[in-house]
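user: Kindly work through both lines:
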Amino acid sequence: MSRQDTIKDLTARLRRIERRAAPAAEREQSIGTGHAALDSVLPAGGLRRGTLLEWINGEGPGSGAATLALLAAGGLMRQQESGPAGTLAVVDRAGGFYTAAAAGLGLSPERILLVQAGTEDEWKWAVEQVLRSSAIDVALTWADSLDDRVFRRWQLAAELGGGVGMLVRSAEVVREASWASVRLMVRGCVGEESATGRRWSVRVLTGGVGRGAWRAGYQERDVLLELSDETGGLRLLPRLERAVPPGVSATG
């Protein structure tokens, strides 16, 4: 498909699902992710429309950044005050995204708009378009390397569209400037396997824009989250459960 055909196809699909842009007052309100454990980590107790969020893969295998991003996206899409659940746009330039895997995390395939970009320029353009569109509630893409000017354009596009943009990125970007309002470092918990689900350490990093959205008195900290294989829900684990090695009594 040529770039011109790609533009026509994406434009047509966005128009078919066009919705009214959220009022400014509504954008200032924090939106829950549908997972209280995850909301407790976020500075505003949730996310805000018209912003970008970075999910940064920490060191080690099985970081889980993309998994948590999809879980949060699904929760946000279900937080609609009226009408059906919202729409998730996934812009995939590597060809590694599978709708079936997202369905396993509770996302309806009918609510996912998958855009496969053939070149880097098409990818950057497609991400900006879905962020700019009021038809999209959540936009997700993978962006290890990103020019500051493109990053800024995406941030402005998100403000205009009123959705939430989620970027899954590698740990190498931590020292770079960011136009995201929230940056989350996600690390897989190697050696802390659970019989009931997968576990990740999550930390909100300092930096980014929109710090006024943070709760008063918020303190940066690491938390341990577990995704239940049985229920698909996230729970916040006590520090003690993380601190005591397997097989060692908590009382000594």
The first helix runs from residue 3 to 16. Residues 29-210+217-243 form a domain with the Rossmann fold fold (CATH 3.40.50.300). Strands lie at 51-57, 88-92, 112-116, 138-142, 164-170, 182-188, 197-205, 222-228, 234-237.
